[in-house]
Amino acid sequence: MNPMSMQLSSKDFHRISEIVYRSCGINLKPGKEALVRSRLMKRLRAQRIFGVQAYLDYIESPDGSHELALFIDAMTTNKTSFFRESEHFNYLRDHVLPGLTSHRLRFWSAACSSGEEPYTLAIWLKEHMPDIDKKDALILATDISKRMLEKAHLAVYPANTLKSLPSPQFKKYFNRLNGQDAGSYRITDEVRKMVRLAWLNLMESWPMKGPFNVIFCRNVMIYFDRPTQQQLINRFWELLEPGGFLFVGHSEGLSAINHKFRYMRPATYRK
Hints:
Layout: H1 10-24, H2 33-47, H3 52-59, H4 65-75, H5 86-96, E1 104-109, H6 116-128, E2 136-143, H7 146-154, E3 156-158, H8 167-173, E4 174-176, E5 184-187, H9 189-192, E6 195-199, E7 212-217, H10 226-239, E8 240-248, E9 262-265, E10 268-270
Parallel strand pairs: 1-2, 1-7, 2-6, 7-8
Antiparallel strand pairs: 3-5, 4-5, 8-10, 9-10
Helix pairs in contact: 2-4
């Protein structure tokens, strides 16, 4: 039987939603059935399993832990771009970076996807902190998708994804590739060395101790329910230094969440 011919019942969707929520906190709401079915069928074909229930039984078994990780990877959304929501970077330049005078600086991109956000941040630090190379500065970039982390590690991007970059920065921090990668560009080593990539499930324990000066967690919490959002915000508070900043997506204000942060401007909060 061709997996693509299979239907996804409401019972299947409910079970999938429970597995995803339990694994990574993402709340799959009704209306996502077509998207879930499309991504699920790719995994069925890859595993040559011709039944939704059989596949779900497999990923919930001890032998299916590796496939479960691939399944969760397939279910996550990885939309990103360089200088996405540029207002945050302008605020960082004008109101945050001038106050970061200590030698040790720590930033966290908490859902870095294929790397555009942390590399944008690294470029921004290079451009707007003249003494950044003399500081102990590090950008931690984490994501639940190993597939996206592999792309971030390569740091190779097609030219059409770099249109939002100002021309001087594009020429300064990207090297044009040839051969089979012609038409793509790799971020320079001086930018890449500022970023440390690591796999992390935000719902599990966090090995890093902090404190962080700045945390970016943008366009992630929209996929979580209110209790999960509340838990995350509390954990971010604990890892930020006093006076540290939290940036969330512009569709993710914290008005409906109990928190101790001080509102600075839309999607920008301070401890």
